[in-house]
Amino acid sequence: MKRSLPHRWLIEQQRLGHALCVVLDSENEHHMRQTLLKSSRPDQYLSVYGQTLVAELGDTGPFIFIVERPGDEPVNELLDRPDSHWGWLASLPKGGLPTLMEHWRERLIIGERPHQALYRFHDNRVLARALKHLPVEAYPAYLGPALSVCYWQDTGWASMHNPAPGTYPVPASPPWLQVPATAQQATQTRLLNARRFLLAEHVRAFATLAEQRDPETWLRATLDQAKAWHWQAPEQLEFLLTQCLHAPTHSPASYWQVRPAESPDEHFQRVRLMTAFWQGDAPL
Fold it and tell me: Where is each DUF4123 domain found (predicted)?
Protein backbone atom coordinates (compact mmCIF):
# COMPACT_ATOMS: atom_id res chain seq x y z
CA MET A 1 0.00 0.00 0.00
CA LYS A 2 1.35 3.42 -0.95
CA ARG A 3 1.96 5.60 2.09
CA SER A 4 0.97 9.25 2.20
CA LEU A 5 3.56 12.01 2.53
CA PRO A 6 3.03 12.59 6.27
CA HIS A 7 3.35 8.87 6.99
CA ARG A 8 6.56 8.69 4.95
CA TRP A 9 7.82 11.84 6.70
CA LEU A 10 7.10 10.39 10.16
CA ILE A 11 8.86 7.12 9.34
CA GLU A 12 11.90 8.90 7.88
CA GLN A 13 12.26 11.35 10.77
CA GLN A 14 11.99 8.53 13.29
CA ARG A 15 14.56 6.50 11.35
CA LEU A 16 16.96 9.44 11.62
CA GLY A 17 16.62 9.30 15.40
CA HIS A 18 14.59 12.50 15.75
CA ALA A 19 11.81 13.12 18.27
CA LEU A 20 8.39 13.60 16.68
CA CYS A 21 5.79 16.05 17.90
CA VAL A 22 2.26 17.26 17.19
CA VAL A 23 1.64 21.00 17.49
CA LEU A 24 -2.07 20.96 18.35
CA ASP A 25 -4.63 23.77 18.16
CA SER A 26 -6.28 23.00 21.49
CA GLU A 27 -9.10 25.51 20.98
CA ASN A 28 -10.77 23.35 18.34
CA GLU A 29 -9.36 19.99 19.43
CA HIS A 30 -10.37 19.53 23.07
CA HIS A 31 -11.26 15.87 22.59
CA MET A 32 -8.00 15.07 20.81
CA ARG A 33 -6.03 16.99 23.42
CA GLN A 34 -7.61 14.94 26.19
CA THR A 35 -6.90 11.73 24.27
CA LEU A 36 -3.24 12.65 23.88
CA LEU A 37 -2.96 13.79 27.50
CA LYS A 38 -4.20 10.41 28.72
CA SER A 39 -1.53 8.57 26.76
CA SER A 40 1.37 10.95 27.45
CA ARG A 41 3.80 11.20 30.32
CA PRO A 42 4.19 14.63 32.00
CA ASP A 43 7.50 15.20 30.20
CA GLN A 44 5.92 14.52 26.79
CA TYR A 45 3.72 17.60 26.44
CA LEU A 46 3.65 21.31 27.20
CA SER A 47 1.04 24.08 27.09
CA VAL A 48 2.60 26.95 25.15
CA TYR A 49 0.43 29.63 26.79
CA GLY A 50 1.26 28.38 30.28
CA GLN A 51 3.47 30.68 32.37
CA THR A 52 3.03 33.54 29.87
CA LEU A 53 1.04 36.78 29.90
CA VAL A 54 -1.86 34.86 28.32
CA ALA A 55 -1.85 31.94 30.74
CA GLU A 56 -5.58 32.50 31.33
CA LEU A 57 -6.15 31.33 27.75
CA GLY A 58 -4.20 28.11 28.33
CA ASP A 59 -7.25 25.91 27.92
CA THR A 60 -7.77 27.16 24.38
CA GLY A 61 -4.12 27.65 23.48
CA PRO A 62 -1.75 25.33 21.62
CA PHE A 63 -0.24 22.22 23.16
CA ILE A 64 2.85 20.41 21.87
CA PHE A 65 2.93 16.63 22.29
CA ILE A 66 5.83 14.25 21.77
CA VAL A 67 4.69 11.22 19.79
CA GLU A 68 6.59 7.97 20.38
CA ARG A 69 4.49 5.75 18.10
CA PRO A 70 3.47 7.68 14.97
CA GLY A 71 1.25 4.81 13.83
CA ASP A 72 -1.07 5.11 16.83
CA GLU A 73 -4.77 5.84 16.28
CA PRO A 74 -4.78 9.51 17.45
CA VAL A 75 -2.08 10.49 14.96
CA ASN A 76 -3.77 8.58 12.14
CA GLU A 77 -7.06 10.30 12.96
CA LEU A 78 -5.42 13.73 12.66
CA LEU A 79 -3.74 12.80 9.39
CA ASP A 80 -7.07 11.60 8.00
CA ARG A 81 -8.69 15.02 8.46
CA PRO A 82 -6.09 17.66 7.55
CA ASP A 83 -8.71 20.16 6.41
CA SER A 84 -9.89 20.53 10.02
CA HIS A 85 -6.70 22.59 10.55
CA TRP A 86 -5.73 20.92 13.81
CA GLY A 87 -2.08 22.05 13.62
CA TRP A 88 1.09 20.50 12.21
CA LEU A 89 3.96 18.05 12.78
CA ALA A 90 7.59 18.74 13.64
CA SER A 91 10.72 16.73 14.30
CA LEU A 92 13.19 17.74 17.01
CA PRO A 93 16.46 16.60 18.53
CA LYS A 94 15.83 14.21 21.40
CA GLY A 95 14.88 16.19 24.51
CA GLY A 96 14.16 19.30 22.43
CA LEU A 97 10.55 19.89 23.50
CA PRO A 98 11.29 22.61 26.12
CA THR A 99 13.50 24.45 23.63
CA LEU A 100 10.78 24.44 20.96
CA MET A 101 8.21 25.63 23.49
CA GLU A 102 10.44 28.51 24.59
CA HIS A 103 11.13 29.41 20.96
CA TRP A 104 7.43 29.96 20.26
CA ARG A 105 6.75 31.65 23.58
CA GLU A 106 9.29 34.30 22.61
CA ARG A 107 7.40 34.85 19.32
CA LEU A 108 3.91 34.56 20.75
CA ILE A 109 2.93 38.13 21.64
CA ILE A 110 3.36 40.71 18.91
CA GLY A 111 2.89 44.47 18.88
CA GLU A 112 3.08 47.01 21.68
CA ARG A 113 0.69 47.75 24.54
CA PRO A 114 -2.20 48.37 24.46
CA HIS A 115 -2.53 46.88 20.99
CA GLN A 116 -0.79 43.56 21.40
CA ALA A 117 -1.92 40.45 19.56
CA LEU A 118 -1.21 36.73 19.54
CA TYR A 119 0.68 35.10 16.70
CA ARG A 120 -1.16 31.90 15.73
CA PHE A 121 1.94 29.84 14.89
CA HIS A 122 0.03 26.62 15.67
CA ASP A 123 -2.39 27.17 12.78
CA ASN A 124 -1.14 25.16 9.80
CA ARG A 125 -2.43 27.89 7.47
CA VAL A 126 -0.26 30.49 9.23
CA LEU A 127 2.79 28.21 9.10
CA ALA A 128 2.22 27.29 5.45
CA ARG A 129 1.76 30.90 4.39
CA ALA A 130 4.88 32.00 6.24
CA LEU A 131 7.05 29.26 4.71
CA LYS A 132 5.64 30.06 1.28
CA HIS A 133 6.62 33.73 1.49
CA LEU A 134 9.81 33.66 3.60
CA PRO A 135 13.22 33.34 1.95
CA VAL A 136 15.07 30.17 2.93
CA GLU A 137 17.61 32.15 4.96
CA ALA A 138 14.76 33.27 7.25
CA TYR A 139 13.66 29.70 8.05
CA PRO A 140 16.05 29.13 10.99
CA ALA A 141 14.89 32.18 12.99
CA TYR A 142 11.30 31.17 12.28
CA LEU A 143 11.46 27.40 12.88
CA GLY A 144 14.13 27.55 15.61
CA PRO A 145 15.09 24.10 16.93
CA ALA A 146 12.65 22.22 14.65
CA LEU A 147 14.60 20.00 12.27
CA SER A 148 11.73 19.54 9.84
CA VAL A 149 8.01 20.28 9.67
CA CYS A 150 5.11 18.60 7.88
CA TYR A 151 1.82 20.42 7.34
CA TRP A 152 -1.33 20.66 5.27
CA GLN A 153 -1.15 23.44 2.66
CA ASP A 154 -4.32 24.41 0.82
CA THR A 155 -5.18 21.08 -0.84
CA GLY A 156 -2.17 18.87 -0.14
CA TRP A 157 0.57 17.90 2.31
CA ALA A 158 3.96 19.59 2.31
CA SER A 159 7.17 19.24 4.29
CA MET A 160 10.06 21.61 4.82
CA HIS A 161 13.50 21.07 6.34
CA ASN A 162 15.18 23.68 8.49
CA PRO A 163 18.62 24.45 6.96
CA ALA A 164 20.14 25.52 10.31
CA PRO A 165 18.15 24.41 13.37
CA GLY A 166 19.05 26.14 16.62
CA THR A 167 18.24 28.87 19.10
CA TYR A 168 17.85 32.35 17.62
CA PRO A 169 16.82 35.75 19.02
CA VAL A 170 13.64 37.28 17.67
CA PRO A 171 14.57 39.71 14.87
CA ALA A 172 13.77 43.39 15.41
CA SER A 173 11.35 43.21 12.48
CA PRO A 174 10.33 39.55 12.15
CA PRO A 175 9.81 38.85 8.44
CA TRP A 176 7.01 36.37 9.17
CA LEU A 177 4.93 39.25 10.52
CA GLN A 178 5.16 40.96 7.13
CA VAL A 179 3.46 38.02 5.41
CA PRO A 180 -0.06 39.04 4.31
CA ALA A 181 -2.79 37.13 6.10
CA THR A 182 -5.76 35.61 4.32
CA ALA A 183 -9.20 36.98 5.10
CA GLN A 184 -10.01 33.87 7.13
CA GLN A 185 -6.80 34.18 9.15
CA ALA A 186 -7.40 37.87 9.78
CA THR A 187 -10.93 37.14 11.03
CA GLN A 188 -9.72 34.38 13.34
CA THR A 189 -6.95 36.59 14.72
CA ARG A 190 -9.36 39.46 15.41
CA LEU A 191 -11.72 37.06 17.18
CA LEU A 192 -8.96 35.64 19.36
CA ASN A 193 -7.55 39.05 20.24
CA ALA A 194 -11.01 40.43 21.04
CA ARG A 195 -11.67 37.54 23.41
CA ARG A 196 -8.28 38.02 25.06
CA PHE A 197 -8.89 41.76 25.51
CA LEU A 198 -12.29 41.23 27.15
CA LEU A 199 -11.02 38.47 29.44
CA ALA A 200 -8.12 40.66 30.53
CA GLU A 201 -9.94 43.99 30.93
CA HIS A 202 -13.66 43.21 31.37
CA VAL A 203 -13.87 39.66 32.66
CA ARG A 204 -16.89 40.20 34.95
CA ALA A 205 -18.98 41.90 32.29
CA PHE A 206 -17.97 39.23 29.77
CA ALA A 207 -19.00 36.51 32.23
CA THR A 208 -22.37 38.23 32.73
CA LEU A 209 -22.92 38.35 28.98
CA ALA A 210 -22.05 34.65 28.72
CA GLU A 211 -24.89 33.88 31.16
CA GLN A 212 -27.37 35.46 28.74
CA ARG A 213 -26.11 34.47 25.29
CA ASP A 214 -23.37 32.57 23.49
CA PRO A 215 -20.26 34.78 23.81
CA GLU A 216 -18.65 33.49 20.60
CA THR A 217 -21.74 34.33 18.54
CA TRP A 218 -21.88 37.79 20.12
CA LEU A 219 -18.18 38.38 19.48
CA ARG A 220 -18.47 37.40 15.82
CA ALA A 221 -21.54 39.58 15.33
CA THR A 222 -19.87 42.57 16.98
CA LEU A 223 -16.73 42.17 14.88
CA ASP A 224 -18.89 41.80 11.76
CA GLN A 225 -20.49 45.13 12.66
CA ALA A 226 -17.03 46.70 13.00
CA LYS A 227 -16.12 45.37 9.57
CA ALA A 228 -19.34 46.72 8.03
CA TRP A 229 -18.58 50.16 9.48
CA HIS A 230 -14.91 49.94 8.46
CA TRP A 231 -13.83 50.32 12.09
CA GLN A 232 -10.64 48.26 12.05
CA ALA A 233 -8.22 50.41 14.07
CA PRO A 234 -7.48 49.00 17.56
CA GLU A 235 -9.01 52.08 19.23
CA GLN A 236 -12.23 51.65 17.26
CA LEU A 237 -12.50 47.90 17.93
CA GLU A 238 -11.90 48.34 21.66
CA PHE A 239 -14.50 51.12 21.84
CA LEU A 240 -17.15 49.07 20.03
CA LEU A 241 -16.48 45.92 22.07
CA THR A 242 -16.45 47.74 25.40
CA GLN A 243 -19.54 49.84 24.79
CA CYS A 244 -21.60 46.94 23.45
CA LEU A 245 -20.48 44.68 26.28
CA HIS A 246 -21.73 47.12 28.92
CA ALA A 247 -24.89 48.18 27.06
CA PRO A 248 -28.20 46.77 28.42
CA THR A 249 -28.90 45.07 25.06
CA HIS A 250 -25.21 44.26 24.36
CA SER A 251 -25.62 46.02 21.01
CA PRO A 252 -25.10 49.54 19.61
CA ALA A 253 -27.70 52.21 20.34
CA SER A 254 -29.81 53.61 17.49
CA TYR A 255 -27.72 56.77 17.16
CA TRP A 256 -24.69 54.64 16.25
CA GLN A 257 -25.99 54.01 12.73
CA VAL A 258 -24.05 55.57 9.86
CA ARG A 259 -25.40 58.84 8.48
CA PRO A 260 -25.47 59.57 4.73
CA ALA A 261 -22.07 60.63 3.32
CA GLU A 262 -20.39 60.02 6.70
CA SER A 263 -16.86 58.60 6.46
CA PRO A 264 -15.77 55.82 8.86
CA ASP A 265 -13.58 58.25 10.83
CA GLU A 266 -16.34 60.89 11.01
CA HIS A 267 -18.79 58.19 12.06
CA PHE A 268 -16.49 56.96 14.83
CA GLN A 269 -15.73 60.43 16.18
CA ARG A 270 -19.44 61.38 16.23
CA VAL A 271 -20.46 58.18 18.02
CA ARG A 272 -17.66 58.55 20.55
CA LEU A 273 -18.65 62.14 21.37
CA MET A 274 -22.36 61.30 21.59
CA THR A 275 -21.64 58.30 23.80
CA ALA A 276 -19.58 60.44 26.15
CA PHE A 277 -22.45 62.97 26.28
CA TRP A 278 -25.13 60.39 27.06
CA GLN A 279 -22.92 58.88 29.72
CA GLY A 280 -22.41 62.33 31.27
CA ASP A 281 -18.70 62.46 30.49
CA ALA A 282 -18.65 65.36 28.04
CA PRO A 283 -20.77 68.21 26.63
CA LEU A 284 -22.30 67.60 23.23
Answer: 22-136
